[in-house]
Inverse folding.
């Protein structure tokens, strides 16, 4: 009898912990889409607020109900994560938008015009915006999925990606612990798809909301469960396994925001438990080492 009650309690607990990520991710996208279509508030301001809130909110939540106590950040972790976040949005994103994304977008704009490609991704209704944003994410994730697999397969590309895998704790802000050179891989998918299909600014706003809120949740240290949401979207459970110290586990669940391509191409692993995260020796690296990893020899990288 006690075992049955305990099992029911565990099931209820799992159900409740499967709700926060889809509620916030999908709810945020709906809020932005309705703001665009109804004008109930300034959509640009709302999008900015929604994208600023996840990191501080999730960091506070992690202190209250962590998935793993040994993943709680110390002052050094917090300082380093803060530097990565600030560098991402104040330096790398603006630079890449101007000097990398824009030339790629211009090239695919030209290709679209030259080929008279008839399909565009635009919408005017709330449902249309949500549908088109998901379609754009599905296509960009397809490109990202294969680039991510290449990064894990070949040392030349791995050296740019390794910084992200040398985290020894999961936490929301660590979604932005990405080497600036890796932005070339992260940015090329959206740059191609958004330009070639002439994705409207409104759809892009919903797309960015869906993608970034998902990514922040995926790295958080909370006892979240995947539930039905995890059939299509990448979740904290699925992505923590991708950060496993064990190579056969880290070479699974490549999807950034969507897990569906892993399911299609056979790289999905549904194990909800990860013993240890990190890479190589599993030791925490200095900020200097993280930034210089792409310029290290293959032998050095293998021994880190």
């Amino acid at each position: 009898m006690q075992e049955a009650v305990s099992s029911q309690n565990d099931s209820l607990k799992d159900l409740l912990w499967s709700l926060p990520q889809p509620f916030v991710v999908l709810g945020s996208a709906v809020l932005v889409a309705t703001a665009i279509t109804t004008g109930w508030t300034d959509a640009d301001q709302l999008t900015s607020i929604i994208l600023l809130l996840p990191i501080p909110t999730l960091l506070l939540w992690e202190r209250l109900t962590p998935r793993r106590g040994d993943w709680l950040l110390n002052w050094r972790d917090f300082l380093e994560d803060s530097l990565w976040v600030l560098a991402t949005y104040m330096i790398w994103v603006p630079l890449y938008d101007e000097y990398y994304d824009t030339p790629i977008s211009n090239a695919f704009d030209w290709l679209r015009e030259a080929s008279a490609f008839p399909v565009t991704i635009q919408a005017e209704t709330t449902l249309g915006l949500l549908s088109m944003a998901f379609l754009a994410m599905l296509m960009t994730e397809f490109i990202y999925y294969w680039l991510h697999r290449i990064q894990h397969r070949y040392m030349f590309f791995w050296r740019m990606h390794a910084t992200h895998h040398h985290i020894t704790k999961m936490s929301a802000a660590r979604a932005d612990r990405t080497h600036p050179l890796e932005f070339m891989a992260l940015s090329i998918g959206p740059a191609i798809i958004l330009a070639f299909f002439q994705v409207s600014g409104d759809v892009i706003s919903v797309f960015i909301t869906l993608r970034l809120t998902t990514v922040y949740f995926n790295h958080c240290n909370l006892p979240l469960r995947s539930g039905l949401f995890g059939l299509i979207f990448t979740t904290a459970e699925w992505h923590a396994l991708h950060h496993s110290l064990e190579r056969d586990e880290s070479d699974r669940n490549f999807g950034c925001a969507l897990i569906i391509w892993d399911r299609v191409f056979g790289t999905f692993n549904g194990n909800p438990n990860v013993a240890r995260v990190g890479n190589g020796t599993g030791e925490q690296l200095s900020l200097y080492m993280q930034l210089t990893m792409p310029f290290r020899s293959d032998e050095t990288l293998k021994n880190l």
Observations:
- The CA atoms of residues 27 and 210 lie 9 Å apart.
